[in-house]
Every structure is written in structure tokens, then in C-alpha cells.
Amino acid sequence: MSTPRLVEVRQKILKQNDVTARALRQRFHDAGIFVISLVSSPGAGKTAFLERVLTLAAKNYRVAALVGDLATDNDAARLSRSGAPVKQITTGTVCHLEAQMIHDAIEGWFPLENPFSSQESRAIPGPQLPVSPEILFIENVGNLVCPSSYDLGEDLRLVLLSVTEGEDKPLKYPTIFNTADVAVITKMDLADAVGFDRAAAYHSIHSVRPGMTILEVSAKSDAGLDSWQRFFTQRLDQWRMRCASPIST
Amino acid sequence: MHELSIAMSLLDALEEEAERRKARVIAAHVRLGPLSGVVKEALVSAFEMARQSTLLANCQLVIEDVPIVVFCPVCNAERPPVSIQEMCCSFCGTPTPRVITGSEMELKALEIES
User: Fold this and answer.
1) What is the interface size between A and B, counted as CB pairs within 8 Å?
2) Sign of the Cα pseudo-torsion (B53, B56, B60, B61, in order)
3) What is the pLDDT of residues A23-55, one digit of tens each?
4) Are A5 and B86 in contact (CB < 8 Å)?
5) N or C: which end of chain B has fewer CB within 10 A?
6) What is each CA distance from A175 to A32, A70, B36, B38, in whole angstroms?
7) Partner-chain residue, chosen from B105, B112, B114, that has the shortest CB–CB distance to A14
8) A143 CA to chain B: closest CA distance, Å?
């Protein structure tokens, strides 16, 4: 037996997830689907927020949602009330979504090509939706730790934080705030009742992620949903311009 | 606790390399940053547990901690931040979201014998 030797490898441990996520992002991009994911701790109000957001977005766009849950399909049932097509991913004991789960969930659910492209459409066995959505929302499993490591092929990642959770939560989970694009403070209708310290929350978020965009919303009173709509429309327009540009990545 | 999933992805990569090189992997050198979302101690325990059922039951896991480095626009230089909770330049105090290193979770090298 020879003496041990050291060989350089240099590859990401989650290489497989990254490869799958990159391929998904390219396919979404080619099909003109803007993908937004939501992460938060359990109970921060992802489903309530998403139900309102889906209802509003459905007025102007073809929307759909994928929702990850450990065991039940309760969230999918709630989101279906928005009228948008919703599909559940039951992860079992897995505490986060992975790119392969997204891939498997959309396979056969809707055609993944641009309805406006001249290419002849590829036959996929039994898609439930005749055309692909323009906007796909992905609700991750409630968890502020594990989802941070997994790219899902999304274009925009929202991290939600409710006013009842404690203003210093970003300091306890800095990594998820570093992988997300925007922070959404939820349950603003309860802010006064729970003595929410807005300045402290902003300070925590900007301490772990300087300059991060912060939105304040209430799914119950609809407060702040207009600023969400403006933010969302702006990001969608920017994304569509990037997609149309020949030098986009 | 996604460290078990990560340990299993790592073992898959190691088995693939062992097979490709027709060699025995005796140690895996991994680079881990604080912004990877992985807890080092949890990864070590998960790896020790997951390796039992593989051909890599004796493979060692050597973890190199990668520090967080940010780009400071005022110093115009790469700097360590004050802390993971306070992402500002530790020299001049300017807040900066530009992370240069610290999110690594990579298999850097293998010690093999054939």
C-alpha cells in the first residue's frame, strides 16, 4: 500500500443541489417564470401573507404556489382559497426544501416552456395546468436555519419576521438574513399590542445585513400590501428586462 | 438539523471520488464558513454517524474554518467584519453587505491511498 497523498478537489458539498438549482433557474428564466421563495420560523405568518399576495397577484398575472410542509397539506388547502393553483410538497422529516423537490413537484404540473416561443411544445404527461404561470411562489418549511444552505432556483428570497418574535431574531439567525433579498415584517396589526420596537428590529436587520430592504405588512388588515405590490412589480420588471437582455447570465 | 443531509451529500461525493480514483479515502478536508448555515460540531457528529454504513467508515473529517471577510467601500479593501451579527468594517466601522468569504461549504481536498 502506497503512502497517503493529498489531492485537491475543490467542489461544493451541495454541488448536486446547486447544479439542479441552476438548471431550474435557467428553465424558469426561459419559460418566463419569476420565482419567489419565502422563509421564516414556524408561525411567522408565511401562509397568511402568501394567501393575500396570491389573491392580489392573481388579478394581473398567472400565479401558482408550491408549499413545503413536514406532514400536513393544511397550508396548501388555505392557499387554494386564493383561487391560484397550489401544490403541496410533503417533506416528511426533512426540515427544508431542496432543489430536487422543486424539480420533482413541477415536473408534470405545468409545461416548462415559454408559451410565446415559436418552438413546438414538448409533450409532458398529464400537466394539470395548460400553461406555465408567470409567477411561482415557493413557501419553504418553517425553519430559519436549514433553508439558508439550499438554493432552490428562485429569483427573489423573502425572509419573514413577525412582530411577536422578538426584535433581535436577526442577530440569532444572521445567515438566513444574509441569503435572503428582502425582509418582510409581518403581523403589523399586532405591533402596538405586543410593544413591537420598530427601531430595534430595523437595527438588528441592518446590523446583520446592511442596507437590506424591509417591508412591513399585515395580512389581516392589508396594511403595507400596497408597498409590497410596488416592490414586487419593480423587481418583476427588472427581472424581465434582464431576461430580455442578450448578455444576461 | 440539516447537517445529516449535508454529511450524506459529502459521503456521496467522497464515494464518487474513491471510485473514480480507485483509491481509499482516508481523510476529507472541508472548508466551512460561518455563513454556510452549517454548525461544525453537528456536521462532525452527523458525519461520524453517517459514515458507518458506507465504505468510508474510517474516513476522517478535517474541517478548516473560513473566516468572514467583507469588502469595505471606505477603506477600499477586504476586511474582517466586527462580527457575524455586526457586518461592518472592523477598521473604520462602515456597514457593508458585500461578503467576500464566509459562506464556503466545500470539499477542498482528499487524503487517499491506492
Assistant:
1) 111
2) negative
3) 999 999 999 999 999 999 999 999 999 999 999
4) no
5) C
6) 30, 22, 7, 10
7) B105
8) 10
